[in-house]
Amino acid sequence: MPDFKDITGHERIIKSLKESIKSNKVSHAYIFSGLKGSGKKLIADAFAKVLNCQNAQNEESCGKCHSCIQFESRNNPDVFYVKATKTKSISVDDIREQVVEKVKTKPYSYNYKIFIIDKADTLTVQAQNALLKTLEEPPEYVVIMLLTQNIESFLPTVLSRCVVMKLRPINADKIKEYIMSFKGLNETDARFYSQYCGGSIGEALRLSEDEEFYAMRQDVIDCLNKLDSLDTASVMLMAKDIEKYKLYPELFDIMYMFYRDVLCYKILKDENRIIEKDKTEDIKRQAKILDEKVISRRLEAIINIKKQLKQNTPFQLSVEVLFINMKEN
Ligand SMILES: [Zn+2]
To answer: What is d(CA 91, CA 178) in angstroms, rounded to the nearest whole number?
Structure first.
């Protein structure tokens, strides 16, 4: 499990956590908020590990003491991972059994009793209220970390008692370098995934292992290549076929990235600036066929469809309209 020094990005948050340790001002409750795969768990784990490390230096855990060794094997008696037990939501009983009862007794072996609550956006209102009592009068040895993708799910009373740390998207170059060294990918592939992952290393890693994503991308780019040569009826059929990918949030990003590369090549005539290197021939061909204004309008149409779908416009209809509009432009 990584230490602070192994985490890519999030320097501001890590610095602030380290300073709180150094100045002996560790809070009793933190909310780490960020997208899926953004590094919330890594930060919470690294923080928990160093808080109970018996030989920490410069606010980094030693990795060798009893606490660190127990932590690495997920057996640290003073670190608790709170989970939903009966339903998908973390219930009031879960909080009572896994937090409220446990905070009553002092740590077994180390400085802090630490509770890490992942998917804290699934805490029911009752569960949050049960937790509130602990947040209002926490024993000095307690640290609670709530990890969430959606900070708006918390009651204002809970929010006001926690230090909120928002994880920002990580720079694409840093992600590229990370996945090159971690996964051994070549620069072209690593750059490609770093552009698709919305600033989340976890997402970049997931996509790089997702064969379905790769197949979908192939399929979608084939559609875009064919678009201008098909009649309206065939375009409608193509829109219907695309529907099978509707649960993939990256679907329209694929289209956007493709036309972004086409526009970029059209203007700059520089192959090195193409992100989707494996599609270079397709991109060059489209850049030759399409007018600059047409490409820009297609990019706008793709941005618009993402907005429309958020407002619950039916998927297939939206894609039909998108393709027809793109063709007419
Ligand atoms: Zn240690």
So the answer is: 37
Ligand 1 centre to CA of 184 (Å) is 30
CATH of the domain at 33: 3.40.50.300
Mark whether 81 and 155 lie in a shared domain.
yes
- What are the pLDDT digits (tens) for 310-324? 888 888 889 998 998
Task: Return the half-sphere exposure (C-beta side, CA atoms, 13 A cut-off) of residue 311.
Answer: 5
Which of left, alpha, beta for 130 (phi over 0: left; psi -120 to 50: alpha)? alpha
3-state secondary structure of 164: strand
- How much is the pTM? 0.78
Q: Which helix H or strand E contains 80, and what residues bound it?
A: strand 79-82
Which residue reads 């920490």 in tokens?
56
CA–centroid distance, residue 62 to ligand 1 (Å): 4
- Domain identity same for 145 and 226: no
| Ligand 1 centroid, distance to 202 Cα (angstroms) | 26
